[in-house]
Structure formats: C-alpha cells, structure tokens
Amino acid sequence: MTEETKILLSEKQIPEKWYNIQADLPVPLPPVLHPGTRKPIGPADLEALFPMELIKQEVSTEKWIDIPDEVREIYRLWRPSPLIRARRLEKALGTPAKIYYKYEGASPAGSHKLNTALAQAYYNKKEGVKRLSTETGAGQWGSALSIASSFFGLKCTVYMVKVSYDQKPYRKIMIQSFGAEVFASPSDKTAAGRKILAEMPDTSGSLGIAISEAVEDAAKHDDVKYALGSVLNHVLLHQTVIGLEAQKQMEIAGDYPDVVIGCVGGGSNFAGLAFPFVADKISGKAKNLRLVAVEPSACPTLTKGAYAYDFGDTVGLTPLIKMFTLGHTFVPPGIHAGGLRYHGMAPLVSHLHKLKLIEAVSYLQNPVFEAALLFAKSEGIIPAPEAAHAVKCAVDEAIAAKEAGDKNKTILFNLSGHGHFDMAAYDAYLSGKLKDVAFSDDEMRSALKSLPQI
Ligand SMILES: *Cc1c(COP(=O)(O)O)cnc(C)c1O
Asked: Which of 224, 225, 238, 424 is 20 to 30 Å from 368 by CA-CA measure?
C-alpha cells in the first residue's frame, strides 16, 4: 500500500493503444439509421462529414487500436495525467472511504477534450482536410479543437451555443487565440441557424442547434469536415487513455475501485474513465464494480429520457441513433454546466445503461456547487461545473460509506476539467442566484412526441 498522494506515471507509460469496448459488448450496438431511408447506414454515408480512419474506428470491433506516434508525442505535453488521492477531502468528510480522482484538468485545454481533439485533427490532416467545423457548448470542446487544429495546421470554425458565448467570453477569446473563428449559435451563417433565428429569435441556443450549423458547414464544403467532441464511438474510444492510465495508477496505489464515477453530457469523459473498468466487469474480474454516470436534473437524459432512435441535432440532419434522449427539439434551461446540456447520450453509454452494466443519478445544481466548493477548499482545485457533478456523487458515496460503517470502500472519479473559466457560475452560486430547475413530466411528454417514428 503506497502512502503517496499523487500517483504519477512516466511518459513511457502513456498507453500505446486505445481500448475499444465494442469488442467486448455482450450484445452488439443497434445499427445507426439513415435519416431519409431509415435503413442502416454504411461508411459512404458518413464520408462527407468525417475522414475514413475515424469512420473505420466508429464501427470497429477490434479490441485495441494503435494511437499514432504523432498523437502520443503531443499527449506527452500533459499525459499521463495525475491520479490523486483526495486525502484532505476524506478528512473533511470524516469518511473511512478512500477517494481517488483522475485529473484531466491538467491538459493545456483545461479538460479531457484534447485527448480526442488531437486524434481527430491528426486523421483529418492526414486525409487532406483543410478546415474543421464544430459546435461547442461551454467552450471546452471549441478550445480543445482550436489547440489541436493549430498544432496540425488546420483552420477551424466553431459554432458556440449563444448562452455560453455571452456568459463565457474568455473561452471564446481562448479559441480565437489559437486562430479559430467563433460564431454565436444560432448564427446567420447557415440555413439551419437562420431557420431557428426566424422561429425563436430570443433562443439561448443549444448544442443540438450548434451541431446542425457545424454539420451543414461541413456538408456544403468539400475540404471541410466536421468534428464532434462527444457522443460518437470514436470519441469515446480516444478518451479511454484516461481509464487505461487510471488502472495502472490504481495498481500502483495497491487499490481497486468499488465505484467509478463520471459526469455525463454526451458521455465521453465518463466512458474514457469507465470503459476499461467495464471490461473488468464484463470479464468477471470485477463483478460487483459499480459505474455511475452523473447528470444534471435539468437535463436528465439517462435517468428520465426514453431509449429510442433520435437525431443527434435539433434540425434533423444527422443519422438516427438509438440512445437515451429527451427529444432532439429539447432546449435545456441555461444551467451553468453548459457541457452537460445535450438532449441525447452516447449510444455506447446508453447501451451499457440499457444492459444494466452502468447506473445513473441526477443532481440539482446548488448541491453540486456546494460539493464543488468543499472539494476546492480541501484539494485546492475549483472543478468545472460539469466535473462538479462527479464530485457531488463521490462525496455522497463517501458519506454513505461513513453512515454504513463501511471501512473498505474505494471511490474513483473523473475530475474532467478545472473551472477557471467558469467563475461567473461560481459567482452566481455564491450570491444565491442559481435556480434549481428540474426536468418536468410535461417536458418529457412533449419530448416523446418529437421522436421520429421508427
Ligand atoms: C464537455 C465536458 C463535459 C461533458 O462532456 P462528456 O462528453 O460527457 O464528457 C464534462 N466535463 C468537462 C470539463 C467538459 O469540458
């Protein structure tokens, strides 16, 4: 048993392959359907949007996929990321439980998103693409992709959800600092944006709308491709470096988690940490391991949504994917965890939830910020509001262990990013201005009506 607080790996221990959970699924993923014909799509249907190597990864059932040297080389700037034993938080809670967190905020982008942004920029560059178009919610993905694009010499256009564009000017400036262009979405740059603006001129925007704009931009231009920061299989694949490193680090610590926790927006940081551990659960190595996805009560996709075929965007341009969804027309309230405001959920995360291999919980935002500040005062890091949802769940698990007199519980969670660009959200919390909004049954009924009939 190590006495260390930070468990670090050397650069040589950066994983050489990503782990593809599709190889180990007890039941394969349902097919993705064409939005027009409603028949399963093939690689050719995705060629306008993505480079071939990413399309291959999207459908691959190979268990291990090589990480290109060019990508690993840049991972070395901050990977392996630290695994930290939250001893001071344990003390503050008076819990006998051990709490570990994997800190992805150590990346230059401030979150886990650079793990996939680099891989996506690399494959696009290799296949001759000149510009990437994308959406961003809180601005985290936009900053990650702008960094990756600048590293690989690509232009980059970011459609940024309007509420974040207004609330988070510093993320916007960060994106511009790396040479990318940013538009508040809905924008007048695309037909999708103009349509929404005509219908709802005062809309605060949503990820679904911004995706419609970015997809249209890529579909209309031959040398432009689209990059998505979450949800898709290849994105979740790239994030598995997090869990693969964490497994080695837990081994060094002489521990193994009883519960693995991550917040979920589209599902990628949760998947990144959890999937290598789900493999242990599927193989029988860790039969009783619990994996918990944490979401905001204002956008409770896994805990309240329907498991159904739906569009990934608001306008209905994307293929139909089977996932937990609140309906593609759902515009979540402007809660501060902008990165968790997505109507759908990664098909892989949805599938595992349906198969009961993972669990989900949801929290209102005030208790989430309360836990985040307890964490900050103990560990010194102000969590991103998204990551704060994972913190809240870890704190609750630790308190439950204390109350049950359970002395052997080990908790591992993903601190997906820091909150240094989210001070406005903390300001709102500290001055008592945050509203606790939950998703209503009425909203769910109207969401269900918007689902395409398959
Ligand atoms: C984007 C983001 C999330 C949510 O996205 P996932 O794909 O669910 O990981 C969570 N935390 C941070 C810090 C983010 O930037």
From this structure: 238
Residue 34 CA: distances (Å) to CA of 31, 55, 155, 233: 10, 15, 29, 17
Helices (H) and strands (E) in the chain, counts: 19, 15
What's the maximum distance between 2 C-alpha atoms anywhere in the chain? 62
How far, in Å, CA of 315 to CA of 387, rounded? 29
Nearest CA to ligand 1 atom 7: 268
Residue 169 to residue 256: CA distance in whole angstroms: 41
Which of 230, 240, 342, 420 has most ligand 1 atoms within 8 Å of its beta carbon, as the pocket-test mutant? Answer: 230
Q: Which atom belonging to ligand 1 lies closest to the Cα atom of 104?
A: 13
- Angle of helix 114-126 relative to helix 52-59, nearest 10 degrees, comes to 130
| Atom from ligand 1 closest to the CA of residue 340 | 4
Which H helix or E strand runs over 359?
strand 359-363
Q: Which protein residue has the closest C-alpha to ligand 1 atom 10? A: 386
CA 143 to chain centre: 14
Give the length of the chain.
454
Taking the centre of ligand 1 as the mean of its atom positions, its distance from the CA of residue 160, in whole angstroms, is 15
84 CA to centre of ligand 1 in angstroms: 19
CA-proximal residue: ligand 1, atom 2 (nearest)? 339
Closest C-alpha residue for ligand 1 atom 4: 265
Taking only the tens place, the pLDDT of each residue in 332-386 is 776 676 667 788 999 999 999 999 999 999 999 999 999 999 999 999 999 999 9
Give the residue, out of 269, 275, 421, with the most ligand 1 atoms within 8 A of its beta carbon, to mutate for a pocket test. Answer: 269
* Distance, CA of 57 to CA of 109 (rounded, Å): 24
Percent of the chain at pLDDT > 90 equals 85
* CATH label, 6-13+75-110+234-450, candidates 1.20.1300.10, 3.40.50.20, 3.40.640.10, 3.40.50.1100: 3.40.50.1100
Which of 103, 104, 111, 270 to mutate to test ligand 1, by most ligand atoms within 8 A of the CB atom? 111
CATH architecture of 17-66+113-232: 3-Layer(aba) Sandwich (3.40)
Q: Report the distance separating Cα 299 and Cα 286, nearest Å.
A: 31
Instruction: Give ligand 1 pocket residues (Cβ under 6 A).
Output: 111, 113, 138, 140-141, 230, 263-270, 339-340, 384, 386-387, 416-417
Tokens (6 digits) for 126? 């290799």
